[in-house]
Design goal:
Layout: E1 8-11, H1 15-28, E2 33-37, E3 50-53, H2 59-69, E4 73-76, H3 83-96, E5 100-103, E6 116-119, H4 122-127, E7 135-139, E8 155-160, E9 173-177, H5 184-194, E10 198-202, H6 210-219, E11 223-226, E12 236-237, H7 240-248
Parallel strand pairs: 1-2, 1-4, 2-3, 4-5, 5-12, 6-11, 7-8, 7-10, 8-9, 10-11
Helix pairs in contact: 1-7, 2-3, 5-6
């Protein structure tokens, strides 16, 4: 399809989505590329091309948007744990007759020196803290913090992209503000400054977020890793470059 006839929708909010938008704009032109952000972050990282903010209101409303905007291809480049939006994207694309692709990051694999415990969900991660050192670094996103509210005897170090507007659903915590990517040396310094003894994170995969794992390895810190859900059915790509190759074929 000629570049001028393409109208690509990227469901974004991740570093992979921003990189994909950059590559897609270079390949097809900025007017052909729209990145949709859910609006959770007040000041999201800038992305090239067009920008849409806010949710769609379900799969049916997303399908209506695809039709109204004449979208010719949809790429779901959201976070691997954003299962609801991914399900809506798959259903909406099918209803609107739009080819869709899910960008599925390569999984992380433990290596020599890693001390990972794999668990199935947030509740299991909270339960696994029993008997561990009292300061815990939570790299799980703000929406999941409530799973640790009832955990007694721990101080939680929570990293957020922005200052929280309200009190977090934790009993004892400190907030660290920062937007990745982070350097391994900075992660080591952060963990040492706060006396972190355990890290809890999602098994997101890909290149983002690996600095904290390398820092944990260097400091011999245990990591409680929450397994990521299975990827959506249908075509997938393992990175922005392979997603561009798929888009060229549409």
């Amino acid at each position: 399809m000629p570049a001028l006839e393409r109208k690509i929708l990227i469901l974004g909010g991740t570093g992979d989505a921003a990189r994909l938008a950059e590559l897609a704009c270079a390949a097809f032109g900025a007017e052909a590329v729209t990145t949709s952000l859910a609006g959770v972050t007040r000041a999201p990282r800038p992305v090239p091309g067009r920008l849409r903010r806010g949710g769609f209101g379900g799969a049916g409303a997303m399908a209506d948007y695809l039709r109204a905007e004449g979208i010719t291809a949809l790429v779901d480049a959201t976070h691997p744990f954003a299962t609801q939006i991914s399900a809506h994207a798959k259903a909406a694309a099918a209803a609107a007759g739009v080819p869709s692709l899910a960008l599925v990051r390569r999984p992380w694999e433990p290596g020599p020196g890693d001390r990972w415990t794999m668990v199935g969900d947030m509740a299991a991660a909270a339960a696994d803290l029993n008997g561990r050192p009292p300061t815990v670094f939570l790299a799980i996103g703000r929406k999941e913090l409530k799973s640790f509210f009832e955990v007694e005897g721990f101080k939680f170090v929570v990293r957020l992209v922005e200052d929280p507007r309200n009190v977090l659903p934790l009993k004892t915590y400190v907030v660290v503000i920062g937007r990745g990517p982070f350097a391994v040396a900075d992660e080591i310094a952060l963990f040492q400054k706060h006396g972190v003894g355990t890290i809890v994170c999602k098994a997101s995969g890909g290149d983002e977020g690996t600095a904290k794992l390398a820092a944990a390895r260097d400091l011999r810190l245990p990591v409680i890793m929450i397994r990521r859900p299975p990827p959506p059915e249908g075509p997938t790509a393992d990175g922005p470059e392979s997603a561009i190759a798929w888009l060229r074929g549409q």
